[in-house]
């Protein structure tokens, strides 16, 4: 097939048109609008970097950004530790291996919105009633403070995503040559040594994939945030994605919201690129 | 050397599995309780398994229609994404040129763009052309879904020898016939992956339909669930019945296709 031929363009046309109209044009328009006083109908004047400087002075936006960073760091660590532990567990000669995989993976199939509602019930009603029975005061009033909202979100995300990350680690663990492990066992390596010097280096590529997936999923989180805490109390558990949505569709300041959206894009893209670069280098060294 | 059955791990695993299922257990048992029963205990089994909550939730959710809307949007979008992405990736992999690599990197780069960054102009532009409806939603899913799908198909196509294309062409097949009768069937394993990843995403998506679907009666399950839950915030017994109803179709799908689903998700993440 040549790029000059009709068939080349006919084969490409549907996806190319869809991508252009749905992603490329809105992205370019968005960058342009972020430098204006656009209100959704009239483009308005060119205002330079005003929207951007305002965004960095916007306390609510900066709080949301900081909350998102804290949430992502804690969640990425928790999800990966739990996910890798589950993967080691189900690959360690247990008879119920298949059943366990099925169970741990299940939450991933259900939408974040619905999972958030289920956990809202657990944190608010179940925690309170269990707390009453066993006399633990700290189980009362979950999701009504910033702190419990934060941990509520990380627990929900760890429960949901650990099984997903487990599946990725399993793929690498099962691809590992068994002779290596057996040889090291005969040579007298302890299980900690085997993990540190054989398993860990061989599953290093899995870290690249898992870190990338968890980071991008947690950093861009919206559905779970909306259904579990709704950003409350007093917007203190609001993450960037929700803050942008609120600025755009509740406060109706489109150009300003779009400037925040562009900042969001730059951060997401930078983190992704840096991470892939760092992980690729580490893999080679190990 | 055969390793022994690991009894300790077996027990830990089963306990953890029960812990993992606990949220679903709590949702399920409380969906049968009365408001008063939930107030006294959230953990015990219901005194009486009555289906009244379900009858009310079923009506309020307009369940059959909502389920049909979700099925219609998901099935149509995924079929089109599979077909168009396979076609696009086929063109990109068979015509090696500057155009092709620019397009390929464009699709890959688009994966980095978070939805919020294009959301506002997207909705205003489509709104101006009266495209905030089911057709517009499906079109948007093709645009957002194409990137990852093309990426996956492109990888698989590079492993299929071009000599097959050439042999078929010599035998008189045209481009479409080569693609449809020879190449596309060979892509079946990756098609399953692409379809599963897109089904999970589109079926569960809330934000995009909430911005695009404004007509009553056209809501998908997550969208209807959001309104339903908002109305019944303090009526947990009804909310739990509604949530259980919303999850049942997914559990059925998982029951029949779990091996393909887990394989698809793992392949999609690793490639």
From TrEMBL, chain A:
Name the keywords, alphabetized. Cell membrane, Membrane, Transmembrane, Transmembrane helix, Transport
Question: Which residue ranges run through the membrane?
Answer: 7-35, 64-91, 103-128, 148-173, 194-215, 261-278
Q: What is its main location?
A: membrane
Record's subcellular location: Cell membrane
Cite the InterPro entries for this sequence: ABC_transporter_permease (IPR051393), MetI-like (IPR000515), MetI-like_sf (IPR035906)
Q: Which GO terms describe its cellular component?
A: plasma membrane
Q: Name one Pfam family in it.
A: BPD_transp_1
Which Gene3D superfamilies does the record cross-reference, listed alphabetically?
MetI-like (1.10.3720.10)
Note the superkingdom of the native organism.
Bacteria
How is this protein situated with respect to the membrane?
A: Multi-pass membrane protein
List each copy of the ABC transmembrane type-1 domain by range: 65-275
Q: Name one GO biological process term.
A: transmembrane transport
CDD domains in alphabetical order: TM_PBP2
**Recorded family membership:** Belongs to the binding-protein-dependent transport system permease family.
The protein, known as: Raffinose/stachyose/melibiose transport system permease protein
Which species is this record about?
A: Planomicrobium soli
- Specify the taxonomic lineage: Bacteria, Bacillati, Bacillota, Bacilli, Bacillales
Automatic annotation (TrEMBL), chain B:
Q: What is its main location?
A: membrane
Q: How does it sit in the membrane?
A: Multi-pass membrane protein
The family annotation for this protein states: Belongs to the binding-protein-dependent transport system permease family.
Q: Which domain of life is it from?
A: Bacteria
What is the protein named? Raffinose/stachyose/melibiose transport system permease protein
**Membrane-spanning parts:** 12-32, 71-92, 104-126, 138-157, 178-203, 236-257
GO cellular component annotations, sorted alphabetically? plasma membrane
Localization annotation:
Cell membrane
Q: Which stretches make up the ABC transmembrane type-1 domain?
A: 67-257
Instruction: Answer yes or no on keyword Cell membrane.
Output: yes
Entries under InterPro entries matching the protein: MetI-like, MetI-like_sf
Q: What are the GO BP annotations of this UniProt entry?
A: transmembrane transport
| One Pfam family hit | BPD_transp_1
Alphabetically ordered keywords of this record: Cell membrane, Membrane, Transmembrane, Transmembrane helix, Transport
Classification of source organism: Bacteria, Bacillati, Bacillota, Bacilli, Bacillales
């Amino acid at each position: 097939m040549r790029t000059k031929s009709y068939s080349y363009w006919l084969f490409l046309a549907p996806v190319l048109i869809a991508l252009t109209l749905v992603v490329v044009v809105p992205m370019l328009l968005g960058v342009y609008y972020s430098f204006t006083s656009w209100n959704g109908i009239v483009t308005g004047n060119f205002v330079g970097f005003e929207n951007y400087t305002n965004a960095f002075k916007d306390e609510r936006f900066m709080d949301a950004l900081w909350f998102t960073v804290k949430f992502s760091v804690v969640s990425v660590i928790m999800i990966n530790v739990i996910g890798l532990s589950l993967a080691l567990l189900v690959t360690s000669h247990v008879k119920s291996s298949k059943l366990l995989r099925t169970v741990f993976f299940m939450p991933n199939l259900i939408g974040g919105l619905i999972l958030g509602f289920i956990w809202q019930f657990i944190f608010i009603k179940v925690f309170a009633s269990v707390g009453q029975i066993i006399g633990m005061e700290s189980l009362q009033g979950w999701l009504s403070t910033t702190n419990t909202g934060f941990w509520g979100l990380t627990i929900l995300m760890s429960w949901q995503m650990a099984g997903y990350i487990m599946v990725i680690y399993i793929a690498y663990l099962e691809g590992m040559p068994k002779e290596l492990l057996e040889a090291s066992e005969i040579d007298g390596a302890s299980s900690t040594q085997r993990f540190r010097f054989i398993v860990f280096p061989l599953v290093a590529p899995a870290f690249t994939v898992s870190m990338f997936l968890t980071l991008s999923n947690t950093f861009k989180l919206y559905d779970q945030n909306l259904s579990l805490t709704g950003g409350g109390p007093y917007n203190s558990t609001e993450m960037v994605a929700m803050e942008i949505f609120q600025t755009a569709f509740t406060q109706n300041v489109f150009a300003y919201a779009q400037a925040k959206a562009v900042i969001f894009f730059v951060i997401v893209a930078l983190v992704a690129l840096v991470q892939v670069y760092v992980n690729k280098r580490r893999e080679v060294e190990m | 050397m055969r390793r022994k059955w690991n009894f300790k791990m077996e027990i830990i695993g089963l306990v953890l599995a029960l812990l993992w299922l606990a949220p679903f257990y709590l949702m399920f048992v409380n969906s049968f309780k009365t408001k008063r029963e939930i107030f006294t205990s959230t953990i015990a089994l219901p005194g009486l398994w009555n289906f009244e909550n379900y009858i009310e939730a079923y009506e309020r959710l307009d369940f059959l229609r909502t389920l049909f809307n979700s099925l219609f949007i998901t099935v149509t979008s995924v079929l089109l994404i599979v077909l168009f992405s396979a076609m696009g990736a086929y063109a990109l992999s068979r015509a090696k040129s500057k155009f092709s690599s620019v397009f390929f990197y464009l699709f890959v780069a688009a994966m980095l763009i978070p939805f919020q960054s294009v959301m506002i102009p997207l909705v205003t532009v489509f709104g101006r052309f009266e495209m905030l409806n089911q057709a517009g939603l499906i079109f948007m899913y093709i645009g957002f879904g194409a990137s990852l799908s093309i990426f996956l198909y492109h990888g698989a196509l590079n492993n299929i020898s071009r000599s097959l294309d050439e042999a078929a062409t010599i035998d008189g097949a045209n481009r479409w016939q080569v693609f449809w009768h020879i190449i596309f069937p060979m892509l079946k394993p990756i098609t399953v992956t692409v379809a599963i990843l897109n089904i999970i995403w589109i079926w569960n998506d809330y934000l995009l339909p909430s911005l695009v679907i404004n007509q009553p009666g056209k809501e998908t399950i997550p969208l209807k669930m959001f309104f339903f839950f908002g109305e019944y915030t303090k009526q947990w017994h009804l909310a739990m019945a509604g949530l259980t109803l919303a999850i049942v179709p997914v559990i059925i799908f998982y029951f029949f296709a779990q091996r393909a689903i887990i394989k698809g998700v793992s392949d999609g993440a690793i490639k």
